[in-house]
Structure formats: C-alpha cells, structure tokens
Amino acid sequence: MMLYFGELSKLKTKKLLFEDVYAARDPATLEHLKELSSRRRMIEESINGSSSITEAIAREMSGGLTTWCQRDLQKLEQYLPLLENLIFHVHVVQRNQQTAQWTPKLNICWSTALSTSSFFNLMGPKFFQICDLQFERTMTLYLYAAMLRERAAEILPADLVQSATFFREAAGIFHYLANEILPTLQYAGCAERPPEATPFMCAVMSLICLAEAQAVTIRKAEEKGTSVGLLAKLHYGVAEFLGEAISVLYSVAGECKDISPRFMEFITSCKAVHELRSQKYLAEDLRTSSQIGAAIGVLRDALIHVRKKVPGEESWKSVFGNEIDATDDLLKKLEHENDFVWHEKIPYADELPLPQGSKIVNIISYQPKRWEGELSFKI
After folding, report:
1. Nearest to 213 by CA among 166, 173, 247
2. pTM tops 0.90
3. 207 lies in which domain range?
4. Tell me: the pLDDT tens digits for 174-196?
5. How many domains does one find in the chain?
6. What single DSSP character describes residue 313?
7. Minimal CA–CA distance to 293: which of 348, 350, 330?
8. In the list 37, 70, 118, 184, which could disulfide-bond 65, CB 3.0-4.6 Å?
C-alpha cells in the first residue's frame, strides 16, 4: 500500500474569454479564439465543480470515458495544443520591433492547492492573478501533470505497468516546467505567484512522481519474485528520490514559507515508509546469508527510528502501523531463532551495513503539441 497525497489537482480558476482580449483580424482567428475559450470553459466548469452536465451526458460527450479523471485529461489534451498555437502567434507579433509593446490585458486567475492558506481560508481559495499567457500555460500544464498522477493512482493495482507510465509522464511534465518554462519567465508587476508556478516546486513534484513510479515498479517486481536484496535497494531508491525532493525544499526555505505542513508531512512520511521497507528486505537478505545478528540489528535500529516519524494523518498512520507490525513480527521471529539456534552477537548501530539505493525509473519527456493554424490580430 502506498501513501498518497491527492490534493495536488484541486486547483480552481476564473473565467477567461480569449476573444474579448485579442482582436481578431479575420473570421478564422475569431473562430480559433472562441474554440479556445470553449475548451477552457469546460475545464473551468469541471475543476470548479460548476458543470450542470449529468454523468450520462458527460460520458457520452467524452466518447465513453467512465471516470472524471479520464474526462478531465481529455479536455486538457484538447485545450493545450490550441493554447500553444495562441502563444506561438502572440510571440511572433511581440518579436516584431514595431509592436514590441503590444500586450493585451489578460486577467488570468488560478488558485493554489499547496499553500497553508488554501486549506484554512474560510472565504474560499486564494487566487493569484497574473496577466501573462505563460502563467496560463504553466498552470494548465501543472494541472495536466497532476491529473496524470491522479489517473496513475486511480488504476492501481489493476494495471501496474500503465500506472508507472502515467507517473513517469507526470514527472516529465513537471520536469519540463521546472527546466524549460519557469526559469525564463518574468512575471512583470507580480509580487507573488502560487507555489505551482515556481521551478523548485515543479522539480519537487517531478521527483515525487518518479518515487511513486518506482514504488509501483517495485510492486510488479514483488509479484515476479524478485530477490529481497534487489527489493531492498529499490525501496531505498524511492527514499532517495524523496530525500532529493526534501533537499530542494530546504534549499529554498525562504521561498516556500506558506507550503502546507500536510504536504511536507506526506513527503517525509513516504520516505520513512520506504526506508523501513528497504531495511526489512535488507534484514531478510542478511538472514539468507546467515548474518542473523546483523539482520536483528538492522530491524531494531529501523523500528527505533520509524516510531519517531509516525504521521498524524489517519490513512497514513494506518500504513505505518501495518509496516511497523510486519517488521516487528519479523524481528521477534529472528530474535527467537537467534536465541535457540545461532546465538550471534548483535552489532552496534555504527557497525550495521549501510543501505544502498537503486533508482531504475526515468521521466518520460514531455513534447508540447501545437495546433498549427494561422492567427492574425488587430494591433
């Protein structure tokens, strides 16, 4: 069982009509802008919970897709190429020296799902307004990646291979945002932006998705009867991904003061669970090589540390409890075996074998798609 933080896709946005902002020079451009607004409105209504469409109609309109997650992914995949085309043509106009100051007024508003205020604001979600098409692309791509992650969790444990693929695709989009889009953006006149629109948070999310992809891959490896030595390394690899994510957050502590403590607890708790699973498999591996004393030492040390990290979230606490009980049962079994058969000395903590990690998953690189249609604006 995996720990999971499902609030990442719970973004909200406000209405945006592109044809009211960009003056079309010809009917084809106007049609494109209206189509763009229409596609966005469907996303708005879905994530804002304001759609009046019934489940049956929604399923029929989507071609038979059965879950809201699948349908939202379809809407985003239809909207993004149209948005990329608008951004492309707006940049063409702005690169023209004679129209360098052409900046139509956009009122783009998105909320955050990661800040403390988003959980405790009684007046509703906190919105950030940034008048830049790049902000729209960033938040839409972030939502798309978050929805891919939701879909990956949705199909567990029925399809482990496809689930891992979705997690890797989400990691690729977050990586694309962190390394290709956000570092070069300058939000003019904007005092603050949501955590989702920062390079460090997208880098963190990419690492989390890779960790989740590897966790799913481990489940497949367990089904195949992979050796306990390799499983120990794979679980520790998950912990290493999450450790990197924590390091990124600590390195920008001044920029993420408002990050939800629950999100931070999720990362540290998930890391602790996989460290424990790694040490449990390591102990089993040591046992098979007749190192009972070292195996007992590893389990004792692991339980001491993990009991200090039990989270407050009930669903996560339940996972911790199950893992601790399983590890404790194995420890008692090994201690009993050692008392009656082996009589091995238990090494001190600093004499125990150090865990080794193996990271075997990579991102699936994101390649933006653009609907190639000519657009012409009145300047």
Report:
1. 166
2. yes
3. 7-230+237-251
4. 999 999 999 887 665 555 889 99
5. 1
6. S
7. 348
8. 70
